[in-house]
UniProtKB/TrEMBL annotation:
Species per Swiss-Prot/TrEMBL record: Tilletiopsis washingtonensis
PANTHER family membership: TRANSMEMBRANE PROTEIN 33
Annotated compartments: Membrane
UniProt cross-references to InterPro entries, sorted A to Z: PER33/POM33_regulator, TMEM33/Pom33
Official protein name in the record: Endoplasmic reticulum protein
Keyword Ribonucleoprotein applies: no
Family membership: Belongs to the PER33/POM33 family.
This protein's GO CC annotations: endoplasmic reticulum; membrane
Signal peptide span: none
Region of interest (Disordered), ranges: 270-289
Annotated TM spans: 12-36, 42-62, 83-103, 172-191
Any one Pfam family match given in the protein's UniProt record, by short name: TMEM33_Pom33
Keyword Transmembrane in record: yes
UniProt-listed GO biological process terms: endoplasmic reticulum tubular network organization; membrane organization
Length: 289
């Protein structure tokens, strides 16, 4: 059986996710354990990897950027473009710890899928299971399959783990994105981050709300909890009033009709459903996220 050959764009895409996962994990762990100026470099490397990987996907999906209405409308509604623009924004902004969480989570799934579908078959060709032999013409049973090798077992474990944890990870990311919005909003009020950050991120969340059921569930759940908390007798009236005014503004903004015709592939940023279900790793030409 011929060894799989990864194209150059696919390798660049995978390298970007490896960078994001390793640097993002190092930044997150380092932030909890100690404070160091070097953490800023890990933050930058994590977003460099995100820009590279998303840039490959967007280029393969849309080609050379064009300055015309049709191209811009189609690109604006593509989730990979949205995550690319957001990665660029965070890359050039002052580091905010929690913003790295979604990208690191997405990259974990892509790294695992790339290892299973590309690295293991290339390094261990024998790990790819051979087709079962059919029973003989005289009805004799086909020979028993040989025990799976360690690489084959590792590949199967990765496939099962990705499939089992895909939905929980997407829910985790959705709640993380709700927390990011709260962080940049409070940060703007306290002058901890740019006043532009909550406006930019609100637009991103609005698009995610329309395109992701996980995001809708997260916002609905958090909204219900806040409604319950602010209607409690112990809640000061001024807090309830501010909350009602804030949610009214957000609801008006979010209810604006979006045109989703020509929308790109769903579930940006996460492992592709095919990968989660044991399919081939997304090639750079069609990789989602």
């Amino acid at each position: 059986m011929a060894r799989p050959v990864a194209s150059t764009p696919h390798l660049v895409w995978a390298a970007g996710h490896f960078l994001t996962f390793i640097a993002g994990l190092r930044f997150l762990i380092g932030t909890f354990l100690f404070s160091s100026a070097a953490l800023g470099r890990w933050y930058s490397v994590a977003y460099l990897g995100a820009v590279v990987s998303y840039g490959v996907v967007v280029y393969k999906s849309f080609g050379v950027p064009q300055v015309n209405k049709a191209y811009l409308q189609r690109a604006a509604m593509d989730e990979n473009v949205q995550y690319l623009l957001l990665a660029l924004y965070w890359w050039f902004s002052k580091p905010i710890f929690i913003t790295v969480v979604p990208y690191t989570t997405f990259s974990l799934f892509h790294v695992l899928t790339f290892v299973r579908t590309t690295i293991i078959p290339m390094a261990f060709p024998s790990a790819t299971p051979a087709p079962r032999a059919a029973a003989g013409a005289d009805g004799a049973a086909a020979p028993a399959a040989a025990p799976a090798s360690a690489p084959a077992r590792a590949s199967k474990f990765i496939q099962s783990w990705v499939k089992a944890n895909y939905d929980p990870a997407m829910r985790f990311v959705a709640y993380a994105e709700v927390a990011i919005f709260a962080r940049v909003l409070i940060g703007a009020l306290l002058l901890r981050n740019s006043l532009l950050a909550p406006l930019f991120y609100a637009h991103f969340c609005r698009l995610r709300f329309y395109m992701s059921s996980f995001t809708r569930e997260a916002f609905s759940h958090v909204g219900a909890k806040l409604d319950e908390a602010t209607t409690h007798n112990a809640c000061p009236p001024v807090v309830r009033k501010a909350y009602v005014m804030g949610t009214d503004v957000i609801s008006r903004y979010a209810s604006t009709v979006l045109s989703v015709q020509g929308q790109g592939a769903p579930a940006a940023g996460a492992a592709a459903p095919a990968a989660a279900n044991g399919g081939a790793a997304p090639a750079a030409a069609g990789a989602r996220r």
